[in-house]
Amino acid sequence: MNFLICIFIGYLIGAIPASYLIVKLSTGKILFQEGSGNVGAMNSYEITQNRYIGIVCGLADLLKGIISVLLVFYFFSNDLLYSVALFAAVLGHNFSVFIKFRGGRGLATAAGGMLLINPVWVLLWLLLFYFSKKKISDNVHINNIIATLFSVAIAYFIPLYFYKITNMPLLMNFSSFKLLITSIGILIIIKHIKPIRDLLASGNFSDNP
User: Fold this and answer.
1) Which of 18, 20, 111, 165 is the most exposed place for a label (fewest CB within 10 A)?
2) Structural domain count, the chain
């Protein structure tokens, strides 16, 4: 029963279409009908050209991951359960029941929850993204995928002691952590299939969409 409750809590919080609501209330635009159609901070900025709206949307998505993990930690204090809640929050953000299962790509929401579990992993993802942008491609989707895949892969090769010294402030079993970032990584990759397919069709690999 606790497992289902945590899924419900995480999904419901993650499914709140914050960027959609912020953009609609501030500009009247429907986020999933404009730009890339992504219901997230990046598209919010691109269609409004307002950095403050983009920042607020990004912070709102980040908070969804933080709140989901904190709530479950407070009520259950179980690492498996708050990892389930974070996965469900990313799932809800990516496929929100409130906007006909549209959504964002889950990166900010995942990062929010991960800041409470292993903030070093958020830094690692950012470094991988930066390296990919400098050395491989200017395209944000390619860089997102590379950073996500490598950050997941690294978890399976690092020694346990390194994980233990970076696992804070909330403690999580290493096996649970690997399962969590793998499952979240899959959700993130799934949401990048369409833009990568469009990228391949256009043949433009250098420009951001």
Assistant:
1) 165
2) 1
Q: Provide the residue range defining the domain that includes 122.
A: 2-202
Is the pTM for the entire model greater than 0.70? yes
Per-residue pLDDT of the chain (209 residues; tens, 9 = 90+): 889 999 999 999 999 999 999 999 999 999 999 988 999 999 999 999 999 999 999 999 999 999 999 999 999 888 899 999 999 999 999 999 999 999 999 999 999 999 999 999 999 999 999 999 999 999 999 999 999 999 999 999 999 999 999 988 888 999 999 999 999 999 999 999 988 888 888 766 554 44
Residue 207 lies in a domain: no
